[in-house]
């Protein structure tokens, strides 16, 4: 924020104390009642054994003690991170590739490309998950059929059990996430690339930088803030992954919980077990993990960029 | 390998001479195809019998069974009812979001009130929290105190405002509405709310509409919250209804995908009209460099 703007907003002419509150109070009331209070009280509920039908007892840290010795919790943590990495890394690389292509000023049909790539984003997660569950089916799924026709069965790669095996199931779920988010991510990167000053490329070119070098030494550093933003948003979203595994293999996330995620485990506690206190504790744990990772992102990226300049 | 490196092309002065490399069009076409094909496939499965789809190779063209499947879907869940429910709820959320978020955004951008800075920090802070954090208590509120289970109020009221909407509208008003215009309107004797309605709102209308679209799409596609607070089939939103479509012993994909197709079709039709505007909205909302 520039100094001039700060001065302006402090200028008494622009201050209208009577009315400001009138404009925000409807928002405050609703947001407080249905946004903030539930968040604060979830922390409170996490210290209780809370069954909506059987009542509740204060149990202190018992839920968290259970959580830290619960093998299902650790499986869910592992799966959540695995699915996040398998989706986020390829998605970012592909989105950057697409964004660079879309940023070409001479590209024809710009609006068409941008719009068509966004189509998956308006589709619901549920629909995407249903489509991809069918595509990754064991016997008649298109992926296995295509692999067969590509001759992979001749080199010993038979039909893959995309549901039963851990890593293949994570790849299938990650592909749902990538499919739905890729266009959106591309547009965000495109928007940032378009705001990079053109003369940076021109001087890089004069210095004899190849296009690849321009990408890695001009585009990527200029996208630093956007990349950090997308990493944080991506982490928050990744830790909430729930509907894809639910649709893919039920509320336990597969027969041996091979793709159960943290958010799905929370859902299971509410829907199946009626353990609201335990569910709240999982919610608090998801939040803690989110905060720690966002903090780490921030520190690491700051270190890295500090070391560079 | 050279082709792969070519992928990392950067727009440069070189382009002025050579134009756009065919690789750009080829790769964009592949991504465009991959974006659309699963939705085409959704209709292919929805309109074929399970046998047609289970053939090897599977049928790649739409079949004749769509209406039959649709009737089966309707027998299992009240799909038409669910579509109406979803439309009403999503519209209500979109209208309220635009109304409340633009107003609050205006206050944050242009007016003063006690606690302005600290409350904005809290709002931005909640954007960093996972949606599941509040859901446990929100459900208990609905079930034990408000009695809003199976009531559309449970879907609409908590979603009427949002941290993202207020924050975004604040940025938009800050960037698009100059103080001078507000000052001029005041000198002309405009009352506060009239200034807001006839000066501020027209300027930010395009962005506010995009916020409405985001809210509409988000509500239409939400599953977690409606699946918790709705258990009466007549109250189902379309996502909850589609999720109920399970075969007795095996997954009936033709049935399920027919439902999913019907849940997606209205959004695809809407997208034809607003897709361009969504693209602009997303790119305007992006953080710059």
UniProtKB/TrEMBL annotation, chain A:
<dbReference type="GO" id="GO:0055085">
    <property type="term" value="P:transmembrane transport"/>
</dbReference>
<feature type="transmembrane region" description="Helical">
    <location>
        <begin position="276"/>
        <end position="300"/>
    </location>
</feature>
<feature type="transmembrane region" description="Helical">
    <location>
        <begin position="72"/>
        <end position="99"/>
    </location>
</feature>
<keyword id="KW-1003">Cell membrane</keyword>
<feature type="transmembrane region" description="Helical">
    <location>
        <begin position="21"/>
        <end position="47"/>
    </location>
</feature>
<keyword id="KW-1133">Transmembrane helix</keyword>
<keyword id="KW-0812">Transmembrane</keyword>
<feature type="transmembrane region" description="Helical">
    <location>
        <begin position="215"/>
        <end position="239"/>
    </location>
</feature>
<dbReference type="GO" id="GO:0005886">
    <property type="term" value="C:plasma membrane"/>
</dbReference>
<keyword id="KW-0472">Membrane</keyword>
<dbReference type="InterPro" id="IPR000515">
    <property type="entry name" value="MetI-like"/>
</dbReference>
<keyword id="KW-0813">Transport</keyword>
<feature type="transmembrane region" description="Helical">
    <location>
        <begin position="111"/>
        <end position="136"/>
    </location>
</feature>
<protein>
    <submittedName>
        <fullName>Unannotated protein</fullName>
    </submittedName>
</protein>
<dbReference type="InterPro" id="IPR035906">
    <property type="entry name" value="MetI-like_sf"/>
</dbReference>
<dbReference type="InterPro" id="IPR051393">
    <property type="entry name" value="ABC_transporter_permease"/>
</dbReference>
<feature type="domain" description="ABC transmembrane type-1">
    <location>
        <begin position="77"/>
        <end position="297"/>
    </location>
</feature>
<dbReference type="Pfam" id="PF00528">
    <property type="entry name" value="BPD_transp_1"/>
</dbReference>
UniProtKB/TrEMBL annotation, chain B:
<feature type="domain" description="ABC transmembrane type-1">
    <location>
        <begin position="83"/>
        <end position="274"/>
    </location>
</feature>
<protein>
    <submittedName>
        <fullName>Unannotated protein</fullName>
    </submittedName>
</protein>
<feature type="transmembrane region" description="Helical">
    <location>
        <begin position="194"/>
        <end position="217"/>
    </location>
</feature>
<keyword id="KW-0812">Transmembrane</keyword>
<dbReference type="Pfam" id="PF00528">
    <property type="entry name" value="BPD_transp_1"/>
</dbReference>
<dbReference type="GO" id="GO:0005886">
    <property type="term" value="C:plasma membrane"/>
</dbReference>
<keyword id="KW-0813">Transport</keyword>
<dbReference type="GO" id="GO:0055085">
    <property type="term" value="P:transmembrane transport"/>
</dbReference>
<keyword id="KW-1003">Cell membrane</keyword>
<keyword id="KW-1133">Transmembrane helix</keyword>
<feature type="transmembrane region" description="Helical">
    <location>
        <begin position="120"/>
        <end position="142"/>
    </location>
</feature>
<dbReference type="InterPro" id="IPR035906">
    <property type="entry name" value="MetI-like_sf"/>
</dbReference>
<feature type="transmembrane region" description="Helical">
    <location>
        <begin position="253"/>
        <end position="274"/>
    </location>
</feature>
<feature type="transmembrane region" description="Helical">
    <location>
        <begin position="154"/>
        <end position="173"/>
    </location>
</feature>
<dbReference type="InterPro" id="IPR000515">
    <property type="entry name" value="MetI-like"/>
</dbReference>
<feature type="transmembrane region" description="Helical">
    <location>
        <begin position="88"/>
        <end position="108"/>
    </location>
</feature>
<keyword id="KW-0472">Membrane</keyword>
<feature type="transmembrane region" description="Helical">
    <location>
        <begin position="23"/>
        <end position="43"/>
    </location>
</feature>
